[in-house]
Design a protein that fits this description.
The chain is of the alpha/beta class. It has a single domain, classed as Rossmann fold (3-Layer(aba) Sandwich). The protein is built from 5 helices and 5 strands; from the N terminus they run E-H-E-E-H-H-E-H-E-H. It has helices at about 15-20, 60-65, 70-75, 90-100, 115-134, and strands spanning about 5, 25, 40-45, 75-80, 105-110. Strand 1, helix 1 (about 15-20) and strand 2 form a beta-alpha-beta unit. Helix 1 packs across helix 5. Belongs to the NrdI family.
């Protein structure tokens, strides 16, 4: 199965979600993200940082990481966390990355995710990576 690459802030919500998946994962550092390199296909898990206006949805560290052409070239899909209280901007970071990098937006979950979200992502990743190998 492929790699999960993720960013998590001090709240650690995304980190806790990824840990529950039990899949191979690498965390984008809070500083030095532009020097962090991934050399294999991965799915990105990213929190959404926007409020009602949608500005700043993608964390700056993720932007720096994806500005590296090699990192971006290995990106195969995106999963976003968000807060449904923000309405239309819920999980907006996934929409932005999907559109800009031309990869599928695979899933969105709220805050820490539920047990169902964990099961859905684990099952979805198995299916996704199996299809990727075809």
């Amino acid at each position: 199965m492929g790699l999960i690459v993720y960013y998590s802030s001090r709240s650690e919500n995304t980190h806790r979600f990824v840990a529950k998946l039990g899949l191979r994962a690498a965390r984008i550092p809070s500083s030095g993200a532009d020097a962090f390199h991934i050399r294999e296909p991965f799915v990105l898990v990213v929190p959404t940082y926007s409020g009602d206006d949608g500005k700043g949805a993608v964390p700056k560290q993720v932007i720096r990481f994806l500005n590296d052409a090699e990192n971006r070239g290995h990106l195969r899909g995106v999963i976003a966390a968000g807060n449904s209280n923000f309405g239309e901007t819920y999980g907006l970071a996934g929409d932005v990355i999907s559109q800009k990098c031309q990869v599928p937006y695979l899933y969105r979950f709220e805050l820490l995710g539920t047990e169902d979200d964990v099961a859905n992502v684990k099952h979805g990743m198995e299916r996704f990576w199996t299809r990727e190998q075809l």
